[in-house]
Amino acid sequence: MIGGGNQVVVQSMTDTDTADIEATVAQVKLLADAGSEIVRITVNNAAAAQAVPEVSKRLADLGCNVPLIGDFHFIGHRLLKDYPELASTLAKFRINPGNVGRGVRHDENFTQFVEIARDLGTPVRIGVNAGSLDPDVMAAKMDENSRTAEPLNSEQVENQALVESALSSAEAALDIGLTPNQIIISCKVSRLPQMVAVYRELSEKSDFALHLGLTEAGMGQKGVVTTTAALSTLLEQGIGDTIRASLTPEVGGDRAKEVRLCQDILQAVGLRRFRPSVTACPGCGRTTSTLFRELAQDIQTHIDAKLPEWRSRHAGSESLQVAVMGCVVNGPGESRAANIGISLPGAGEEPRAPVFVDGERVKFLSGPNIATDFIDMVESYVQTTYGK
């Protein structure tokens, strides 16, 4: 379930040609295995439309039952009508009201699209993008603004047009027969301040479920930072029901990175837990040894490798907090605050490392096997603490 007080859902999208069934199945499964709870696929022509039912069937054969969203532009109304099995296969439809025609044709195409969703009981995301905003709406808002005593700047007018387009389309969908809980709205732009402003206004003006995301976040660190800042700002204010990180992957890069980023954001703001966390100090002049860095990496590698097993056999282990600290300044305090933590000796300190479990010091580790011994203690903690 989306919205209505349910937890925020992680979404992603494939970049394969949907008509390439084998490649699309492989990528959907990759995204689902990484934790994507909804996967959107492009349905842009007859070949893609015909492929979707087979994609869904092959995924089911693999035990992958992630809901599929059809991403429609320009001819979605025709494809859904011409390929009934496509329509019945998809768990949600996505329509961009700026891409379904102009004037009377726009209204006819939009109505046909929504009627199919209504008859199937399928939810619809009304996705308005700055790059494909309904030109009639934008022109009307610009004309209206030009006649005011104190005209707004172009970005402010665009914000108004985005919100108006989304909400008027949602109201039209209600008139056609969708229920409020079958409608999700998104208003995506690429600039962070504008995106935040638009979603705040949407949240103030409606109770529809909201899908958060930037249209294009970009590549590398820039994409990660921008996405994190935008989504965190809104999620902290209680805005958002589904999220996506629209990262530009490197050529041959990992498409599932966008899924993990969404999970990390939700975990960082305290809305959901997906995996154990490792707290490690950044290092300073007191930590000239690389031991704590090596141990932190070894712990993270161990957790990543064990996570599938822990998820299936030890419910609740995703809440595990581990601390690997490098000296006596913050080490004991941070280690006590974790479920299990170790404070390694800094430069000039006694070569012993106290280990804390649930706030209590339980033993000291020393010698060449500190890393192995501590990993064994973490594994034992998981085995004895979390349900089977």
Given helix and strand content, the structural type is: alpha/beta
Number of strands: 15
Q: State the shape.
A: elongated
Major β-sheet profile: 8 strands, parallel, barrel
Show unreliable segments.
none
- Terminal residue distance: 27 Å
Counting copies of identical and different chains, the oligomeric state is: single chain
Question: Explain this structure to me?
Answer:
It is built from 13 helices and 15 strands. Helices cover 48% and strands 17% of the residues. Helix 12 (331-337) links the parallel strand 12 and strand 13 (340-343). By secondary structure, it is an alpha/beta fold. The two termini are 27 Å apart. The strands form three sheets. An eight-stranded parallel barrel has the order 1-2-3-4-5-6-7-9, surrounded by five helices. A five-stranded mixed beta sheet has the order 11-12-13-14-15, with helices on both faces. Helix 1 (21-34) crosses helix 2 (46-61) and helix 8 (192-205) runs parallel beside helix 9. The chain has helices at residues 21-34, 46-61, 76-82, 84-89, 103-120, 135-146, 154-176, 192-205, 220-236, 257-268, 291-313, 331-337, 370-385; strands spanning 9-13, 38-42, 68-72, 92-95, 124-129, 183-188, 209-212, 218-219, 242-243, 247-248, 277-280, 321-325, 340-343, 353-357, 360-365.
